[in-house]
Structures are given as structure tokens and as C-alpha cells.
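Input (structure):
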């Protein structure tokens, strides 16, 4: 049988308190961990369509797999993360006071980012007010939260795990990520009301001085690798004046995706494309495969082995393994985002305007230098591979052989003449 909340806490040798009720204050002013559970196990997710509908009305930015959702489709997606007959709904930590952390969850409305949106999926359930709360006081809150989530995952039957929308991460229904930052692949984004950016006291903003953000010109051969192709901007026209420095026209920024998220909330910024060569993309994919298939399983085994050595509060092996696990999960998330927003740089036509992928020869101060314009992920100035966002790379974009370019550097202005574009 699946573990109940108090049984789950006791598997780690914790002293259990509770149960508390959702609408009544918890009396614990110390740090620790807590577990929310149903009064009894249920086979299917009791998602309330009326609550989901209010969520969609409250948060107009909510998307499922990048597209607007209906209440039924959103409820169906949530239901794909329900583990049948599990009573445990959420595992959390309270680094300061258990009572304050739980009060923050109770006070947060569905879709609001504050005070604490961690258990927002819980609020989509019918009669979620009947949730019971169990807790245990400990100074090692994060370590025990991690151990509780692992203990929960270990007792999920294989057939139930395989039936999940994302079988790779078995978490309680309302937990969206592990303590190391590994998220459920639920496809729901923009599900919190955006927080307005803080404005320093006394700041005066002149609308007339606000300039639109622009990005570098991109070669005609670039195409998106992620969730769809986008038409890149044409290279900026080269100057027609003779003997004087020319400046390429500014091209509009290229946006890939529908905007980034932080903790599920939209940041208000478009996700920038990641320009990369075919060989560079394969390197990113190879590194991601190495991390997910080799290093991730190895560090998970190390965490489990270290946990068995004893007290998590004074366990150097456990702390070291957890830090490595956190780094690996962060790098996996970074690589995944880079690959999803990758734009392949194809070799531009020789003799044309400077663009991503161009090999160029420039002359400055009587000396010739060779460069290749690449995306920031492949930049290596020592090898002559300069980023399109570097001062020189940005200034050269859109120019042709014979053009003169003034580059503004921290040491002053430097004049370059484009000798050859290949």
C-alpha cells in the first residue's frame, strides 16, 4: 500500500506532529518539513473544472504546450500527473518557521505569485480544504525535503509511473520540481500573474527617452531548430559612401519562443534565439545526452548511498553529492533551453554582407586579421571565432568588402576596413 504522510515522515526517523487542518493555524515556530495529504486515497484526480476555469480567467497568459488552453484540456493535463491511490499531495520545506510557510500557502490564491505559489496545483482540486497537514521540525529542512521526495518516488509502482505524462519524474501531485530544480515536463507555462518589476524609490522615467530593444543582423541561412521555423531578418544594407566609415542599418530583434519563465511565471521578455552551427548543435546534444544518461544516474546513486550513511545534517558526502546533483540539473535545464531555441547558422554566400557564419579578413592599423562570426555559445576569441554580440562582431554585421567600420571599445574607437568576406 502507498505510504501515508506520517508513515513517509517516519521512514526518515523524523518525529511527526499533526494532523493540522488547512484553514487552522499550525503551531510550530521552528524550521522543518511538512506533508499535505488527502483524507483518503482516490483513484482519479478530483480536478474541479470551475476552479480551473477561474484560473484561466485570472491568468490570461496561461498556455499548454505553447498554445491557449480550454478548461477541459488543462484539467486533462493535470490529471495525467495523478498517481492513483496516493494520499500524499505535496512535500515542502520551511527554512524558518513551519507555521509561516503553511500560512503562506493557505493565503495564496490560484494564479497569484505571492505569498507562495508552490502548491497551486493543489488548489485546482475539489474540496482541497479537506487537506490534512503533517509536519516534523528539523534544522536540515532542505535535506529532508529531498529525502522525502526520493522516498515517495521509490514507493510509486512502475505501472503507475509509466502512466504519468512525464514518467521520468515521480513526484506528489502538487510538487512541480525536485529540490535540485528538475521539473515535471507538464507543458504548462505562464500560469502565474506577472509581477510588476520593482521601481527604485524616486526614479523618474521619461517615455521619450525609451528606445526599443534591437538585435544584430542575421544571415539568410539561419533557421530555427526548436518548436517551429521563423523567418530571419535580412542582412543590413552596406554603406554606399566612399572613403568614410559606414554603419549598417539596425535590424529588428529575432525572438524565438513565446517568452521565458521563472518559477512558472512569465518574465515579460521574449526568449532570445541561440545561434549555433550544425557542429555546435551536435556538441550541445552530445553533452545533454552524457548528462542525462550517464552523470545524472551516477549522482542519484551517490546521493542515495550518502543518505544511508547517517545524519543528513553532518554528512559531508551527502552535501557534496547534492551540490553536484544541483549543478548537473541546472546544466541540463540550460542545455535543453539552448537546444529548443537553437537557430542553425548555415554558411552564407561568399562575397556578400557579413552575417553569422561569415569568415572575414579585416585590416586595422596596417595589420590584417581573420575572424569567423559565430553565436555566443561557440565564441573563442583566441581562435578567431568572435560572437555576433561582441563589439567587433556586432559592428561588422551587414558590411561588405571595402567598407570601413568604427568599433567602440573600452579603450576608445578603432577603425577597421573589411578586406574580404567569405
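Output (sequence):
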Amino acid at each position: 500500500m502507498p505510504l501515508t504522510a506520517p508513515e513517509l515522515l517516519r521512514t526518515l526517523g523524523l518525529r511527526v506532529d499533526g494532523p493540522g487542518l488547512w484553514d487552522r493555524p499550525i503551531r510550530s515556530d521552528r524550521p522543518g518539513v511538512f506533508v499535505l495529504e488527502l483524507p483518503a486515497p482516490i483513484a482519479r484526480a478530483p480536478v474541479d473544472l470551475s476552479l480551473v476555469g477561474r484560473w484561466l480567467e485570472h491568468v490570461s497568459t496561461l498556455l499548454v504546450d505553447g498554445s491557449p488552453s480550454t478548461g477541459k484540456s488543462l484539467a486533462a493535463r493535470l490529471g495525467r500527473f495523478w498517481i492513483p491511490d496516493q494520499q500524499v499531495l505535496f512535500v515542502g520545506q520551511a527554512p524558518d518557521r513551519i507555521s509561516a510557510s503553511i500560512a503562506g500557502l493557505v493565503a495564496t490564491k490560484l494564479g497569484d505569485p505571492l505569498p507562495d505559489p508552490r502548491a497551486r496545483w493543489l488548489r485546482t482540486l475539489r474540496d482541497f480544504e479537506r487537506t490534512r497537514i503533517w509536519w516534523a521540525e528539523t534544522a536540515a529542512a532542505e535535506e529532508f525535503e529531498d529525502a522525502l521526495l526520493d522516498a515517495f518516488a521509490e514507493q510509486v509502482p512502475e505501472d503507475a509511473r509509466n502512466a504519468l505524462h512525464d514518467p521520468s519524474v515521480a513526484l506528489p501531485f502538487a510538487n512541480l520540481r525536485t529540490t535540485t530544480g528538475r521539473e515535471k515536463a507538464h507543458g504548462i507555462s505562464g500560469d502565474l500573474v506577472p509581477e510588476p518589476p520593482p521601481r527604485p524609490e524616486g526614479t523618474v522615467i521619461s517615455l521619450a527617452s525609451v528606445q526599443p530593444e534591437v538585435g544584430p543582423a542575421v544571415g539568410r541561412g539561419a533557421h530555427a531548430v526548436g518548436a517551429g521555423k521563423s523567418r530571419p531578418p535580412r542582412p543590413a544594407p552596406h554603406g554606399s559612401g566612399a572613403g568614410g566609415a559606414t554603419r549598417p542599418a539596425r535590424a529588428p530583434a529575432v525572438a524565438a519562443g513565446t517568452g521565458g519563465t521563472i518559477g512558472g511565471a512569465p518574465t515579460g521578455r521574449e526568449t532570445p534565439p541561440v545561434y549555433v552551427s550544425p557542429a555546435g548543435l551536435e556538441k550541445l546534444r552530445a553533452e545533454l545526452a552524457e548528462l542525462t544518461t550517464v552523470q545524472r544516474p551516477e549522482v542519484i546513486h551517490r546521493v542515495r548511498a550518502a543518505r544511508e550513511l547517517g545524519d543528513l545534517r553532518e554528512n559531508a558526502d551527502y552535501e557534496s553529492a547534492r551540490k553536484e546533483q544541483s549543478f548537473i540539473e541546472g546544466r541540463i535545464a540550460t542545455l535543453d533551453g539552448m537546444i529548443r531555441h537553437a537557430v542553425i547558422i548555415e554558411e552564407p554566400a561568399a562575397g556578400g554582407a557579413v552575417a553569422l557564419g561569415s569568415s572575414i579578413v579585416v585590416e586595422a592599423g596596417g595589420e590584417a586579421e581573420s575572424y569567423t562570426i559565430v553565436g555566443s555559445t561557440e565564441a573563442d576569441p583566441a581562435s578567431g571565432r568572435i560572437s555576433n554580440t561582441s563589439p567587433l562582431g556586432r559592428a561588422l554585421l551587414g558590411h561588405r568588402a571595402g567598407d570601413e567600420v568604427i568599433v567602440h571599445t573600452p579603450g576608445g574607437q578603432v577603425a577597421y576596413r573589411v578586406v574580404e568576406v567569405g
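Notes: The first strand starts at residue 17 and ends at 21. Residues 231-272+349-422 form a domain with the Chitinase A; domain 3 fold (CATH 3.10.50.30).
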